[in-house]
Amino acid sequence: MKKLFLTIGCLFFMANHLFAQAKRPTIMVVPSDAWCNANGYVITYDNQGTSVTVPDYVAALQNDMDLMQVISKLNDLMADRGFPLQNLESTIKSINQSQAEMSMLQSKQGGEVQTTLYEQVRQRAKADIIMQITWDIVTQGPRKSIRYNLQGLDSYTNKQVAGDSGVGEPSFAAAVPVLLEEAIYSHMDNFCDRLQAHFDDMFANGREVAITLQVFDTSEYDLESDFDGYELCEIIDNWFADNTVNHRYNLVEQSENMMVFEQVRIPLYDERERPMDANRFARNLVRYLRADPYAIPAIKVLNQGLGKVVLIIGDK
Amino acid sequence: MKKIALLLFSLFSLMGICAQNYSSSKIPIGVFVSEDAEVIPPIAHAALINKMRQIVTANGLGANNQAQFFITGLVNVTDREIIGGAPTKIIQKIDVTFYIVDAATDKIFDTETVSTRGVGENENKAYISALKAIQPTNANLKNFVIRSGGKS
Lengths: 316, 152
Prior knowledge:
The complex is a heterodimer of chains A (316) and B (152).
Chain A lengths: L1 H20 L5 E5 L1 H6 L3 E6 L2 E6 L1 H7 L1 H16 L7 H17 L12 H6 L6 E12 L2 E12 L5 E8 L8 H30 L1 E9 L10 E2 L2 E2 H12 L6 E5 L3 E9 L11 H13 L8 E5 L4 E6 L3
Parallel strand pairs in A: 1-4, 7-13
Antiparallel strand pairs in A: 2-3, 4-5, 5-6, 7-11, 8-9, 10-11, 12-13
Helix pairs in contact in A: 4-7
Chain B lengths: L1 H24 L2 E5 L9 H17 L3 E2 L5 E15 L5 E14 L4 E14 L2 H10 L6 H13 L1
Parallel strand pairs in B: 1-2, 1-3
Antiparallel strand pairs in B: 3-4, 4-5
């Protein structure tokens, strides 16, 4: 009996240890586009005749005291429940500082740090899960209540992994963070439970990622190129069937130049027990395609985060 | 004596041709961008002027604002994407068409179009990034300047 307890104890410890080592998604609170628009924190551009409005997070963070306090309050509430969050404002400052420092860096021979346009585009605040908050104040005489909507969105699969919305009890409190805390506090556990359920599902059924394959226009191959009677897209499709957890994936789009795989379940660890993410998983596919009998010479891998990768066939 | 005279004549003729070639390769070229030619931000306007100076001087001609001949450029945005986020990124594909023009006769000697791309946190930076990517010593631009120098 003692041995049984010891074994169960050891197994429990090992499982906890392994889960702790897996790459945990990062989470960040951002105001929704609707909130930014309603409060005037947007920039409108003319995109060749079409008006495009995008949120101006920097202006919102610098000017709206309520927003800062709401983000701070949500960070606190989530941290108390074991989900420490990335801070939007600090991330933006860090990106700006890093860009400024790199632009001033020179080698002893006068060389500058190389950045491609793609790398410059990718230098934005990113998180694996975005907590999008929208709120407004409903006034009833001297009392105010807050109407809010909180969504936890997976950045790669675009799935809502947790959510909560409602109207708080009317209160004489004036401060938005207090109203929000009053409204959201009782629902926060529910939100965190759903988030935890998402993580538990990931541990049980593998991480859910998105992988896109495309083709450079200089490539001698496309996804319909024939290899011993099989088109390249079929070969790739079969590879996904063989290598995903429980063969779970969804091929949502396919043409001669593009294959889009979503809801791809990948193992949390590779065969050497190293934490697995979309990039590491996709590199196995790259090695498979570069080896005989396919021998595709060059495939570019664009790592877009923990759960998204783009492979482009035909060049580097 | 006749041979010496012929030799001297040939030598002087050769010197004349060399002098002509030298002068054509050093024709001063002005740099000009019309204020209303294209709607580009003022900072990008300055960047375009600077880029044209680089093109002219890097390819053997001299930049001079009082010249009869001048190089000018028109910018045409062929594609633009705006990515909302923190910070917002603007991606632009532009075609810059360079002209070498004779101001006295309004004659266009030659044109060359360069396609380029740039990215920035606002329109100015996206234009500057795209213009910065144009290499003054690019083979097509070099041929364009040499061709125009020959014609003028």
